[in-house]
Design a protein that fits this description.
Elements: H1 3-18, H2 21-24, H3 34-46, E1 52-58, E2 66-68, H4 80-91, E3 99-104, E4 107-109, E5 112-114, E6 117-120, H5 129-141, E7 146-148, E8 151-154, E9 192-199, E10 202-208, E11 214-223, E12 235-240, E13 246-255, E14 259-264, H6 269-283, E15 287-288, E16 292-294, E17 302-308, H7 312-322, H8 325-338, H9 347-361, H10 385-397, H11 401-406, E18 430-437, E19 440-448, E20 454-462, H12 469-482
Parallel strand pairs: 5-7, 6-8, 7-15, 8-16, 11-13
Antiparallel strand pairs: 1-2, 1-20, 3-6, 3-17, 4-5, 9-10, 9-14, 12-13, 18-19, 19-20
Helix pairs in contact: 3-12, 4-7, 4-8, 5-6, 8-9
């Protein structure tokens, strides 16, 4: 072959090798840069490119980092919980736990405790009805039946002189579980679980816990056999009475064999916790002769019982899998209280300071980052996708990164990702924390592509309305899996 002909053939062959195979097959979109595909999808979903902020960075394989409006400050929604939980793992330690102590200033004689029962609370984000029952059952097992004194709740663990910032976007239910605020007196998420069931006798309603201060006015009628209706078919109304009781009225129709439920937060945390402990003690056959109140535990009080929480790793999993707002907000207060300085007089603000200092120690630019309450249940919280990606990269290399990553929902498998991207190749191949507020949708976490490269990805949609944002962010994950940005697809980073 003539040298010039051979040279031309070689050049042609090299050019063909640089063209992706799908393009040779006639697919006109396969060589479209990844960023361009996502921007086109953004215009279709929310009509403006400025509505998104996205960053995708390969962690352990080939690929080109991608940034779309990555330095734009955005409202993150619940992906803010990843910052709070990661900070807690590194500043408190994964084995951190909480102890709730029961003490007395009296003495035990026969089957009676003569003195007050003090409950010293520790800010435990997940002190529930089951553990309180267990510890009160221990007192019952010691032979005590009567407590001749007051029930005193000690909530000195937090300093909150100015209270907490309100979140006013309450929708149509100001008593909804996602609105429960953190408190030194928090137990059982401060929730009542109301249930109504229909059978051949009619309908029956009850609550857990069952306390004297909350009454149910059951107006649900039983009907014949039929499909069980959704919860939105029932009307729940709440009346706060002059005698400090609450009446919950429920109306609707319920076929036999069906039930409906509702979770509501109706009492101040200190009143709820006192009522819960009294209800448990009453169910065990015990009684108090005194009142319920808040106060400080005397220094000479004697320890009677203790209940210990699970470790922080378990708490982080509960927070991130199901996006538990009150636990995340409580955790920020715990961080603040644990690292309180002499000049600190507010544990929320101290917690925010500690998280900012921790981020800076990780060489993460915190300019423009607004944490507010640690849960993302806020119109004030802000972060950029680039900052979020840097935090995810830090988690990837952290000794506690595995604990954080394992706490995130698995795609199409569990938590808040259970129903997303089902029947796709991504099932179980990514761990993604989701965020949802009015006019806000977001994702953050780690996902794989078809070459088994893991990507740190964060995406935020801020737009009115944002209801198409979820599908857009699912497309980001889907596109990262099937057509990951790399040099062979001519993608370019910002």
């Amino acid at each position: 072959m003539h040298a010039s002909v051979f040279k031309q053939a070689l050049i042609t062959l090299l050019c063909l090798m640089l063209v992706p195979a799908p393009a040779l097959a006639g697919n006109p979109t396969s060589d479209t840069p990844w960023k361009a595909r996502i921007l086109d999808a953004t215009l279709n979903a929310v009509e403006t490119k400025e509505a998104v902020s996205i960053a995708a960075v390969p962690m352990n394989g080939p690929g080109l980092s991608q940034f779309i409006n990555a330095d734009q400050s955005m409202s993150p929604g619940s992906i803010m919980k990843l910052i709070t939980t990661f900070a807690a793992l590194e500043t408190l330690g994964p084995a951190h736990h909480w102890e709730t102590r029961f003490l007395t200033d009296g003495r035990m004689v026969g089957n009676a405790l003569h003195g007050n029962l003090y409950v010293t609370l520790s800010g435990d984000p997940r002190l529930g009805q089951e553990r309180l029952w267990s510890v009160m059952r221990e007192l019952h097992g010691m032979g005590i039946r009567t407590i001749n004194g007051d029930l005193v709740l000690d909530g000195q663990v937090f300093q909150l002189p100015d209270g907490l910032p309100a979140f006013d976007d309450k929708g149509d239910n100001p008593y909804a579980p996602f609105l429960v605020q953190p408190s030194p007196y928090l137990t059982n998420f401060n929730l009542f679980h109301f249930q109504v069931r229909a059978d051949e006798r009619g309908t029956h309603a009850w609550s857990s816990p069952s306390v004297d201060a909350v009454r149910i006015n059951n107006q649900v009628t039983a009907t014949g056999d039929g499909p069980c209706p959704a919860r939105h078919h029932f009307d729940w109304t709440t009346d706060f009475n002059a005698d400090n009781t609450v009446t919950v009225t429920v109306e609707g129709e319920l076929p036999k064999g069906c039930r409906t439920t509702s979770y509501q937060s109706l009492l101040a945390p200190e009143h709820y916790t006192a009522a819960l402990i009294r209800s448990i003690w009453k169910d065990l056959g015990g009684r108090f002769t005194g009142i319920s109140r808040t106060g400080k535990t005397p220094e000479d009080a004697r320890l009677v019982m203790t209940t210990r929480s699970k470790d922080l790793v378990s708490m982080v999993r509960d927070i991130n899998k199901w996006s538990n707002n009150v636990m995340a907000r409580q955790l920020l207060l715990v961080i603040g209280a644990a690292h309180r300085q002499p000049e600190d007089d507010d544990d929320r603000e101290a917690g925010i300071r500690v998280v900012h200092e921790w981020l800076a120690s990780r060489d993460i630019d915190t300019r423009g980052v607004v944490i507010d309450n640690g849960a993302g249940l806020s119109r004030e919280s802000r972060i950029s996708a680039r900052q979020g990606a840097r935090i995810l990269e830090a988690a990837w290399h952290s000794p506690f990164g595995a604990d954080l990553i394992a706490s995130m929902p698995l795609i199409a498998t569990d938590g808040t990702m259970a129903q997303r991207l089902r029947d796709t190749a991504l099932k179980g191949k990514g761990r993604i924390k989701t965020g949802y507020l009015r006019n806000v949708r977001s994702i953050a976490g780690f996902t794989r592509d078809e070459n088994n490269t893991t990507w740190a990805v964060i995406g935020m949609v801020n737009h009115a309305p944002a209801w198409n944002g979820q599908a857009l962010l699912d497309k980001v994950l889907y596109s990262l899996y099937h057509k990951p940005p790399s040099a062979t697809t001519l993608s370019r980073a910002e």
